[in-house]
Amino acid sequence: MAHLFRDLSLGHSKRESTPPSPPQLATPPKPTVDLPSPFGQLAVQLSDSDLRFTAYEIFVAACRTSTGKPLSYISNNSSSDSPTHINSSSPSHNSPTLQRSLTSAAASKMKKALGLKSPGSGPKRSPGSGQGKVRKAMTVGELMRSQMGVSETVDSRVRRALLRISAGQVGRKIESTVLPLELLQQLKLSDFTDQQEYDAWQRRTLKLLEAGLLLHPRVPLDKSNIAAQRLKQIINAALDRPIETGRNNESMQVLRSTVMSLASRSDGSLNESCHWADGFPFNLRLYEMLLEACFDTSYETSIIEEVDELMEHIKKTWVILGMNQMLHNMCFTWVLFRRFVATGQVDTDLLYAADSQLAEVAKDAKATKDAEYSKILSSTLTSIMSWAEKRLLAYHETFDSGNLESMQGIVSLGVSAAKILVEDISNEYRRRKKGEVDVARNRVETYIRSSLRTAFAQRMEKADSSRRASKNQPNPLPVLAILAKDVGELAVKEKQVFSPILKRWHPFAAGVAVATLHACYGNEIKQFISGIVELTPDAVQVLRAADKLEKDLVQIAVEDSVDSDDGGKAIIREMPPYEAEAAIANLVKVWIKTRIDRLKEWVDRNLQQEDWKPQLNQEGYASSAAEVLRIIDETLDAYFQLPIPMHPALMPDLMAGLDKCLQYYATKAKSGCGSRNTYVPTMPALTRCTTGSKFQGVWKKKEKSPSSQKRNSQVATMNGENLFGVPQLCARINSLHQIKSELDVLEKRVITHLRNCEYAHAEDFSNGLGKKFELTPAACVEGVQQLSEALAYKIVFHDLSHVLWDGLYVGEPSSSRIEPFIQELEHNLLIISDTLHERVRTRIVTDIMKASFDGFLLVLLAGGPSRAFTRQDSQLIEDDFKSLKDLFWANGEGLPIELIDKFSATARGVLPLFRTDTESIIERFRRVTLETYGSSARSRLPLPPTSGQWNPTEPNTLLRVLCYRNDEAATRFLKKTYNLPKKL
User: Fewest 10 Å CB contacts: which of 99, 270, 279, 836?
Assistant: First the structure.
């Protein structure tokens, strides 16, 4: 079989060879890696060097026997310039395998397919990696030896043994040979440098047999298998004391018999193979070592240019290792992935190559039902997916601008692994309906939600640290306000940086991301809202920040979902509103209610203490009016200083509350002051009667009616409190006028504030609804009117009753005329003129004039038995009335003459009756009474009721003129018609 083995050195390539290696097994530098092998741990102690050495032996053996042409081996001692040299009897006998010249000039098809660059190209190029060095050409065999770090000495020893093996097994295929057994018999102590090296090699070889035949056999072992028990005993003994390995040695014969018995057990296949290195995971670990040789030793992240030729030779080991294309694809995927991880994840080419290779694995997984393959594949994919997901479940921590390029590859790798695991391996998935589960989308959604929850937790911790660091600074930001800003920035980064990558697997990646952030922040803000009891700057700041964040997140979600079937409704449903604006609105409403309640309490308390003294420096109004206006002004300023976005929306609530407070003030300011009816006396039926007659007289000083006594008592009490004097009533009137005047100013200030609001719209200040005082103006007008009449009638009928009711025309009219009343009335008018605001002065004087005219007529028509008039008195009465009118005209400086004429019309109509003869009045009385009462009045004239509405054509007015007529005709008529007394 000597012709089966030849040297590796025939043929040269453009690849440069390394200098001669020292005579030992040189381990190529390997990057550290923390990834455990998914193929499982070996049950025997074999180092990576042991496995690599064994893989190399298998590689050389498989490649040397791939041709039937004879080869001869010559030691490298006879080589002139090559580490090893083969002499053949004829060039035609050269092996087309290990002797093939490498063609690195042509680009690798495999590298093109995997998208891999040449070693040293691009940014990975580094000095001292072979650039510019002159090296000798090498063959495929020399390349493999160099890549696997095998020294020339060890290589020569292996090939020497293989030649010896071939000499004794001519025509036998390598897969039918148990290589460690044959090497154990062929290599002697003389092939090694010393006894120690030989003993170590023998122990390794026996461990390989143990691993392949006993611990990880392809065909499962029966516990009672005698050969297995015997081999175990031999190996255990040999580990303590090396065995003799000569061909005819008895112990060697027993070992051979035992090994071959175990290795020849069939697995049911038709091929004749010795199963010593094809059991899982032993074979996969050995094959992994071979595939590692495809990486450049100078550029550990690059695959060598000659990978096509090298891979072609590596595949020749399949017959020994029990490999096939599916297992190769799985192993190669793992090796590419492991190399990417082990070299610091800097070369994304490796990552994408692994992902590309994983696509082949996916095809394989769909096509096979092999349980053993599925088990190993599941382990491999789980390892890949676990590594990927460890980074993807917190990709905000893993990726930044420096390594973002690798994210897409890692996502693709993780998703592809998950899809194969779920779709092709999981029985549960197969039982479901097709399309029910979108594995890729579900996984990516899991990555997004997990990573953003993690990122949110980190931002929250950071915000809390930031708040603690700034707590001694003025106005430190609350945690949730800081967090809202950070979350907003996180959402923008997600949308701009990560979502474009993740959209490949999830069309609404940004929407899912912001929905997750919305939920995370929502949990915090809802707890915050539930704990707020009052409006504070911090609370408003947090709620405004939350509202802005929510709007930004929803906007991103809407933009991201615009092309979805439901227009983004599903994502939006995941984002229940924070109700931050509603929370602010509720807090502001509480703030408004608190302010309004306090203002109302203030009005109550201060009006109870108010003395209603006119303040000269405040145009005669009370200090409480000035104070209530000041408080309202401050309240408006405070409201617009609130850092809220809904000033226009809640303005009607505030205005309504302030309006009610001012209305309440106006109501309280006039309360207890009486009215016109409080001071006007109750009209008696007739006044020509004496005590005890059937027509009871009233308005006699010593004979007052109960209602009159009640009124006078009330007036006395009010006057005694000194709160209802003329100056005090004037102060009340001025106060109400001042409030009404200031309403326009306050309303304009509100509009100005609204114009300056950030969130105000044109209609918010152009539309007056909700920005005006609706109740107060009417309350002030009504209050001024009531107080004005009360003041006027109080002056005339109460304060001046001694000169009007008790003095005017009492006894002899000519000696008790109107001058005293006019003098005192003028004095009161001067007080009013000095006290009242000029805008309401005319109204009050007009009411006093009306009250004076009413009082004058009341004296004439209901003045009681102490008054009587002749026709001759009519002139002085008219002169007195003219004097009264002149007081209010004041030579043109008082009330307008038209106003005086208007309110004196009743008196002007009644006064001529006092100069009309009695018969004419009686006749006129009869006529109007008949007109009023009809035919029933012909037999007896009825007594007309008192209406108080004096009129020269009204029966009661005519009758009263007759009652006060001091002549016989009037007396006879009254006595005869109504049996009234003859004397007054």
Answer: 270
Amino acid at 35: L
Task: Let me know: does 645 contact 712? Beta carbons within 8 Å.
Answer: no
Confirm if 400 and 350 have CB atoms less than 8 A apart. no
Secondary structure (DSSP) of 133-168: ----B-BHHHHHHHHTT--HHHHHHHHHHHHHHHHH
Q: Is 962 helix (H, G, I), strand (E, B) or coil?
A: helix
* Cα distance between residue 424 and residue 358, in whole Å: 13
User: 773 and 746 in contact (C-beta within 8 Å)?
Assistant: yes
Q: What are phi and psi of 139, to 5 degrees?
A: -95, 180
Q: Helix H segments across 43-116?
A: 48-64, 109-114
Quickly tell me which residue has 């009006």 as its tokens. 607
Half-sphere exposure of 772 (CA within 13 A, CB side): 10
Q: 153, 338 in Cβ contact below 8 A?
A: no
Give the torsion through C-alpha atoms of 120, 125, 131, 135, to 10 deg. -30
Give the whole-angstrom CA distance, residue 626 versus residue 213.
108
Q: Which of 858, 828, 824 is nearest to 844 (CA)?
A: 828
DSSP code, position 84: S
Cα-Cα end-to-end distance for the chain = 173
- The amino acid present at 91, given as its one-letter code, is P
Spatial separation of the C-alpha atoms in residues 506 and 561, rounded to whole Å? 11
Residue 537, phi-psi category: left (phi > 0), alpha (psi -120 to 50), beta (remainder): alpha
Residue 377: name the closest of 390, 391, 358, 393 by CA.
358
DSSP states of 513-526: HHHHHHHHHHHHHH
- pTM confidence score: 0.72
Q: Dump strand ranges (E) for 294-443.
A: none
- Read off the tokens for 915: 């100069």
Q: Spell out the residues 6+ positions from residue 249 whose beta carbon is closer than 8 angstroms to its own.
A: 243
Angstrom distance (rounded) from CA 562 to CA 589: 37
SS3 label, residue 27: coil
Q: Which residue has the tokens 């092998």?
A: 37
Which tokens belong to 279? 């059991």
Q: Nearest-CA neighbor of 356 among 402, 303, 277, 398?
A: 303
For the record, the structure tokens of 786 come out as: 């009531």
Rounded distance between C-alpha atoms, residue 850 and residue 832, angstroms: 16
CA distance 710 to 677: 13
Coil, strand or helix: which one is 295?
Answer: strand
Structural tokens at position 813: 């009219």
Mean pLDDT per block of 10 residues along the chain (984 residues) reads 36 37 45 77 92 95 62 34 35 43 60 74 42 58 92 93 83 86 92 93 94 93 91 90 82 92 80 87 96 89 90 94 95 95 89 93 91 93 94 93 90 94 72 68 95 94 79 72 93 94 93 94 92 87 92 91 78 89 90 93 90 79 91 92 84 93 93 88 66 33 36 39 82 92 91 79 60 91 94 94 94 94 94 88 94 95 90 95 94 92 95 95 92 77 86 93 92 89 65
Enter the DSSP assignment of 675: -
Q: Where are the alpha helices (DSSP H) in 498-578?
A: 499-502, 509-531, 537-560, 569-573
> Phi and psi for 895 in degrees, rounded to 5?
-75, 150
Return the structure tokens found at 745.
Answer: 């100013």
Tell me the residue length of the chain: 984
